[in-house]
Design a protein that fits this description.
87% helix
Length: 220
């Protein structure tokens, strides 16, 4: 099986395998930091603790960029997995965009400082945590692509489930916002952040879709 060949290849390039593991670890870490930062913002606004989380997120994104470039160099310099190289590079770039999304949304919150009424805090927390879980699921799908290809479909299906849940929460939250007595400009401002957070789950689903195609190609 081709999967066995790739597995043995990684066995001879342990450093590359470790870099990919750390790269994926950083995606999950970025989600956790994002979730905590949103909770802190809802409770205390753009305080020092929120700024610390934002700085931490930026450091994670920078490290992930470094890892991605290093992995790309390794794949080309060692002429590794030539038949899969393009798919792996696209996968890394697409996953990197998820971390960029987490970081970018924290900066938007810091700059625009949306005034989120307490009645919507639970909705924002539920949306954020569902989106982070969705990203965690696609990270597991990506790990499976390298180590246990038969599990990719299961994790991809979970990613799609959580993306659908995020859409439901987003829709309910937006309906509540627009049914409230808030001024229209505040409703639009809050909707913007709901859509931006939900969009990370949409991108995670896109990665899951691509992974399933890469998996089919890899089995041929």
């Amino acid at each position: 099986m081709y999967f066995q060949k790739v597995t043995s290849l990684f066995g001879r390039t342990r450093a590359l395998e470790n870099q990919i593991d750390e790269f994926l670890d950083k995606v999950s870490e970025a989600g956790l930091v994002f979730s905590r930062a949103v909770r802190v913002y809802l409770e205390e606004g753009a305080c020092a603790e929120f700024d610390a989380f934002m700085t931490q997120e930026s450091a994670i994104e920078a490290r992930e960029d470094t890892l991605r470039r290093s992995i790309e160099v390794e794949l080309y310099a060692r002429t590794l997995i030539p038949d899969l190289r393009g798919d792996v590079l696209r996968l890394l770039e697409d996953i990197d965009s998820l971390v960029n999304g987490f970081e970018g949304h924290l900066f938007r919150i810091s700059i625009q400082q949306p005034d989120i009424p307490k009645e919507f805090h639970k909705g924002f927390i539920n949306l954020t945590e569902t989106v982070v879980t969705c990203v965690d699921s696609v990270v597991l799908a990506a790990r499976s692509f390298f180590r246990d290809i038969e599990s990719v479909r299961d994790h991809a299906s979970k990613t799609m489930f959580f993306e659908s849940e995020a859409d439901k929460i987003s829709t309910k939250l937006q309906r509540g916002i627009f049914a409230s007595d808030l001024p229209l400009e505040r409703k639009i401002h809050l909707r913007y952040f709901v859509e931006r957070i939900d969009d990370v789950a949409n991108k995670a689903e896109d990665v899951a879709d691509s992974l399933q195609i890469y998996t089919i190609k890899r089995k041929i």
